[in-house]
């Protein structure tokens, strides 16, 4: 049975002392005087960025200042070598903690069998919407399941077994970490946490996300955040390394998550119609894999489909009046809007005013299925 005093927290730090200090302030406030070993691996080729010892209490933290860019995998591996805990808890320096996050994380770990890793529900600090609550895969990309929903959406109010979870908060066994040789350093920017869960799965261990353990994650909400500002050029290399290594190991579970969310939708909505027009705004190369599932498994009768080409993935805003003809606004046939991100449709007040959207539905690439009326009311 995992207990809090069995845990070593490892914080990889690259730069931005003020962000680190605020993160640690929220960490201390929520640990409730628990005496955990906390290791900070400060690493940067610029020595001025990692001179943090004088700013922090060395009685609370074991601080290593390394004049090199270790990236996330290297910093985690370094911290693990110096950790004495039976369990390792990775915590990024841009995480901000809420009450009971650690207790809930531990409870999730103890509640399930064959657990290899557990992550929290990571939420956007600007919107209180979900950033990460478990991941799956379609043919070529990662699915961030229920991304964008409000953090307390009823669909997300239970623990979830997933293929991968965000390494920004990740609790795992020290022994297992060593058995799988830690974090793969060939994926320095992204996907190394996905890879870790795949390695655990190969040994028969599962990855879970805890619905009650909630933390804020700055992440890409601030493009000045060091990872996005300094190392974005490594994104494609990391993704290529992951898929070269794991293409046959990771499972395409798109159909599972579409059906999971569709079943929830049907149980909580009376809004399934016989026929639809499909407006396909999705930018994925394999978007037709989704459409085939809409027809064959979700039994949606699509009378006609219009493919709309957008120049940017995950567009911030799609003005429907610019892409769908005025004649179609007053059609009585319900619409399916298939998009990368359902949040891109929030700001369509004129469309919502002109069209009867009560029977329209929105589906996005992360398997969210939502009544357009709820989007218009910002109820999701």
Explain how this protein is built:
There is one protein chain. 30% of the residues lie in helices and 24% in strands. By secondary structure, it is α/β, with parallel strands linked by helices. The strands form 3 sheets. Strands 1, 2, 3, 4, 5, 6, 7, 10, 11 and 12 form a 10-stranded mixed beta sheet that branches. Strands 14-13-15-16-17 form a 5-stranded mixed beta sheet. The longest helix has 15 residues, at 17-31. The radius of gyration is 22 Å and the shape is elongated.
Number of beta strands = 17
In terms of quaternary structure, what is this? single chain
Mean pLDDT over all positions:
96
Which bin fits the share of residues in helices? Answer: 25-40%
Give structural attributes.
five-stranded mixed sheet, 13 helices, 380 residues, alpha/beta, 17 strands, ten-stranded mixed sheet, elongated
């Amino acid at each position: 049975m995992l207990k809090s005093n069995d845990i070593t927290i490892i914080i990889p730090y690259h730069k931005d002392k003020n962000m680190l200090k605020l993160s640690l302030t929220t960490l201390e406030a929520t640990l409730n005087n628990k005496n955990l070993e906390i290791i900070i691996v400060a690493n940067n080729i610029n020595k001025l960025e990692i001179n943090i010892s004088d700013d922090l209490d060395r009685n609370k933290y074991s601080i290593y200042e390394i004049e090199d860019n270790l990236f996330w995998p290297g910093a985690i591996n370094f911290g693990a070598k110096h950790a004495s805990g039976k369990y390792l808890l990775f915590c990024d320096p841009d995480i901000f903690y809420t009450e009971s996050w650690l207790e809930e994380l531990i409870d999730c770990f103890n509640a399930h069998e064959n657990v290899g890793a557990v992550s929290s529900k990571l939420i956007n600090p600007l919107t209180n919407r979900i950033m990460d609550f478990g991941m799956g895969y379609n043919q070529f990309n990662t699915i961030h399941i229920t991304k964008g929903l409000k953090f307390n959406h009823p669909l997300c109010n239970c623990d979830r077994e997933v293929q991968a979870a965000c390494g920004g908060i990740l609790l795992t066994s020290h022994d297992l970490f060593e058995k799988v040789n830690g974090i793969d350093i060939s994926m320095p920017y992204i996907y190394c946490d996905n890879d870790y869960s795949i390695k655990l799965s190969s040994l028969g261990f599962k990855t879970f996300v805890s619905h009650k353990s909630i933390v804020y994650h700055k992440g890409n909400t601030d493009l000045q955040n060091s990872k996005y500002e300094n190392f974005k050029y490594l994104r494609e290399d990391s993704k290529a390394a992951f898929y070269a290594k794991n293409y046959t190991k990771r499972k395409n579970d798109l159909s599972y998550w579409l059906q999971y969310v569709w079943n929830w939708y049907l149980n909580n909505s009376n809004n399934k119609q016989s026929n639809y027009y499909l407006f396909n705004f999705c930018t994925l190369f394999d978007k037709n894999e989704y459409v085939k599932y809409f027809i064959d498994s979700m039994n949606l009768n699509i009378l006609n489909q219009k493919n709309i080409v957008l120049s940017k993935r995950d567009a911030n805003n799609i003005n429907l009046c610019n892409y769908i003809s005025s004649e179609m606004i007053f059609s009585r046939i319900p619409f399916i809007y298939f998009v990368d991100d359902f949040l891109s449709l929030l700001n369509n007040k004129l469309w919502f005013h002109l069209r009867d959207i009560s029977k329209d539905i929105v589906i996005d690439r992360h398997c969210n299925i939502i009544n357009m009326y709820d989007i218009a009311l910002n109820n999701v």
